[in-house]
């Protein structure tokens, strides 16, 4: 009976054999020139997990200049953007490779940027990898497996462990702590106790890492198949206190009467449920969707600041959606997310409670129009966020909420068919307004446009004749 490690090795050899012809030829060229070449890192790990890749990372004994000459002969194109770090890239057909000279990095304790020193052995190069599961290699062209830090056993056990002492590894490169959370999410692996203890002890070291690099890790974590696992690592180790403090702040102390649910666990559940409602590439919200996932995670971050225990024994979070939208904007800007992502996520947080005014379906057509117009291009995401926000265990209540939202969606569809609701405009445009009122471009034109848009929302299509009459009345009342 084979061991898990043997099963993984057989799987990896099958994947490598399929994806490796170009890599084997490259290995032959390096060997003929007297140099070592090994496939390293993620492509090796993924081969053991049964995943092939056309983006291949290699380590070599060759110098950057020697590597560049060899890749120029092998590839259709090559580039030296990373040459100062020992990395040369090339492409041949669909295969993209990056080849890096063996390295033994040294770090300035006040900076995450390494002081690059080239090494002389594959084992030494692998020691500077973040985790043992990424510190495995396959020598080419021989396809000899190299595993000096027992990464295969950790891969079989689903464990994240550093190749060297975790304190030294994280001190050298604090971003590796964020990667621990990210790989927990991407691979559904758990962090071994010693590594976890180092994460807790050294969490504040993440402060020296740039916001852009932290944001990139958070994004990869959120776009993974299991972001909850990674987020729990961030919160449990204290890393979230440094990079996303609004998340652990949701762990509100529950009073003795248990007058509200655990907001932190609720938010993680809403994220899970929002992910389950994403659609494929041809759907309205293609998976994975960063905006929806960020909004689901952050939708209640205004609750800690707005929690009030009422005299009658209840608890309230009045206007937490408004406060939450502002906090969302502030945090996402600090993490250097692009402007449109910040704007869209904050808007969803602001709108996530709007549906709860729908009640038993008593909204007027005007209210439905405003709901759609306010959501704009975010409507499909708002649909999913609103449905995901129902985490009650009361089946009757859950069904009532779901049925009410289904009713609202049907009304939106009906109005859309009647009025092309997504493109609601006043019955008169700016040019017509100026001609009718005899005025030039000015603030009054915008006010008139806004007034007619309000009428359009309240009463539906008016037609040019009625709209003109209403416009003249409005203008006369203004004097």
UniProtKB/TrEMBL annotation:
Position of the signal peptide: none
Query: One MF term in GO for this entry?
Result: poly(A) RNA polymerase activity
> Which cofactor does the UniProt annotation name?
Mg(2+)
Give the InterPro entries listed for this entry. Answer: Bact_CCA-adding_enz_type3_sf, HD/PDEase_dom, HD_domain, HDIG_dom, NT_sf, PolA_pol_head_dom, PolyA_RNA-bd, tRNA_adenylyltransferase
Instruction: Please cite one Gene Ontology biological process associated with this protein.
Output: tRNA processing
EC number of this enzyme: 2.7.7.19
Is Transferase one of the keywords? yes
HD/PDEase domain mapped to chain residues = 259-403
- Top enzyme class: transferase
Give the CDD domains listed for this entry: HDc, NT_ClassII-CCAase
Q: Which UniProt keywords apply?
A: Magnesium, Metal-binding, Nucleotide-binding, Nucleotidyltransferase, Transferase, tRNA processing
Which PANTHER family is this protein grouped with?
CCA TRNA NUCLEOTIDYLTRANSFERASE 1, MITOCHONDRIAL
Protein name listed in UniProt: Poly(A) polymerase
